[in-house]
């Protein structure tokens, strides 16, 4: 059963309808989730000196030496063009090495440099971030329920920017305005 705020309810001082208790509880939960993710991004940047998106990419290249940009981007759930930009930043900083495949010279594989390995050793938590790490611990039935409920919530948004689905969460949450931008 869906409960809605009554349109006959009195307006608050700001001229808006008051929130339902359950809606306020959900809003608080989103604040905890996003605040925790943002704090993790800051800690990664402080400890490692690069963005969380870059650290996740560097970690995936360590897990699968020789991985290509397209597969790397797919693992992070981002566009291939965004993945290429992140790779180039890591290569230019000497943290990631590109090597042509001996079998197929058209294919370029990636792996961390010695300096990249040192950066990874400083990682204060999960490379993929606290939200993806937490989601990966949930049973499939819970994840499917979340998908259904979040789809319903998204359908109610007055402004819905679906292109963000393929943007690293750290970038959406403004990590790039910090010190990592100055070093990239």
Please provide a brief summary of the model:
With 184 residues, the chain is mainly α.
Note down, in words, how this protein is organized.
With 184 residues, the protein is mainly alpha-helical. It has a single domain (37-174), classed as Winged helix-like DNA-binding domain superfamily/Winged helix DNA-binding domain (Arc Repressor Mutant, subunit A), CATH 1.10.10.10. It is built from 9 helices and 2 strands; from the N terminus they run H-H-H-H-E-E-H-H-H-H-H. Strands 1-2 form a two-stranded antiparallel sheet. A hairpin with a 7-residue loop joins strand 1 and strand 2 (108-112). The longest helix is centred in the first third of the chain and has 28 residues, at 21-48.
Shape: elongated
Mean pLDDT: 85
- Alpha plus pi helix count: 9
Assign the CATH superfamily: Winged helix-like DNA-binding domain superfamily/Winged helix DNA-binding domain
Write down the domain tally: 1
Mind summarizing the main beta sheet? 2 strands, antiparallel
How many E-type strands?
2
Write the H/E string, N to C: HHHHEEHHHHH
The fold-level CATH name is: Arc Repressor Mutant, subunit A
Order of strands side by side in the largest beta sheet?
1-2
Level-1 CATH class name: Mainly Alpha
What are the segments in which pLDDT stays under 50 over at least 5 consecutive residues?
1-9, 175-184
Give the CATH architecture. Orthogonal Bundle
Oligomerization: single chain
End-to-end separation in angstroms reads: 50 Å
Percent in helix:
40-55%
Strand content: 5-15%
Structural class: mainly alpha
